[in-house]
Write a structure and sequence with these properties.
By secondary structure, the chain is of the alpha/beta class. The chain has nine helices and 14 strands. The strands form four sheets. An eight-stranded mixed β-sheet has the order 1-4-8-5-11-12-13-14, with helices on both faces.
Length: about 375
Amino acid sequence: MPGRQLVCDSPLLLECGRELPRPVLAYQTYGELNGDKSNAILVCHALTGDQFPVERHPITGKPGWWEMLIGPGRPIDTDRYFILCVNVIGGCMGSTGPQHVNPETGKVYGLDFPVVTIKDMVNAAFRVVDHLGIDQLFSVIGGSMGGMQVLQAAASYPDRVFSALPVATAARHTAQNIAFHEVGRQAIMADPDWRNGEYMLYGVKPERGLAVARMAAHITYLSEPALHRKFGRNLQNRTHLIYDFREAEFQIESYLRHQGRAFVERFDANSYLYITRAMDYFDLAADHDGELANAFRGVKTRFCLASFTSDWLFPTSESRTLVHALNAVAAPVSFVEIESDKGHDAFLLDEPEFIDIVRGFLNGAASVRGLRQR
């Protein structure tokens, strides 16, 4: 895997009580650290994202997933800021995960990999932050699962996060979100090639199950208006129904099948199980006597939250809950609900208002922080 890696020289203690001995953390950086290392931004990736937000993906060759935001002159300006993005532990893009060899047994982890949480992911990312000698991050930014990491970072490291921008996210996963993830996990585990998570030993992959998991999840990333505008009830390369199940009858079926096939080329099935579990377990209030506000008590971090009107996976009400909790402890917070019909994935798309908000928030925070234009 191209890019940079940190091999930790000490175990990472996980919330489940187990340890990862000498975990490997894959990461990428963009821009340059300034003299006092005050311009670093940690970008946290979403569920199936990776540490390559602004360069060609090493497997698919596709553009980075946040290229509209990060780069010279862009809102997350690499001429001004130092950008760090770490592949989450449990992932499959270089950081230690279930497809890696367990140094204690000499065998691939598979389902013997310990269960990881969002807090574990954040603690691992801060190993890289420490490795780079950064005392305080200028900002932590991310959407969806990345937004969960942003919230956890601010709660776990209140003195080390100057500003935070959690986007299209929530302080916990809802029952509906857990339900969708469970459908995906069951699809993977029902695939005969999954082989109780030991498929790597047999030289196979549960591609059909993972593809179905991706198809189900992908529906939740979109909205009905966006689907209707793009596909409607249009047939796939034909003018009449063929009354068959094997071929895609409608364009939306063909699109989902394509998404499923493309996903299995770049993602690991067991990683999908572990990372969806991490999202399901996330409940920021649970660690603070059930009071979400307690998670932010005493935090000086400047927050900006953003949601999208058509996001039914992480609706605006979830962001409002966070804003109310931050207000309860008098934390500095701004909030914007962005009009969009593109669904949850709007944070990954070219939404001009969202792009302006990111630029404006960072510029304001940089002014307070005393960061000058380079």
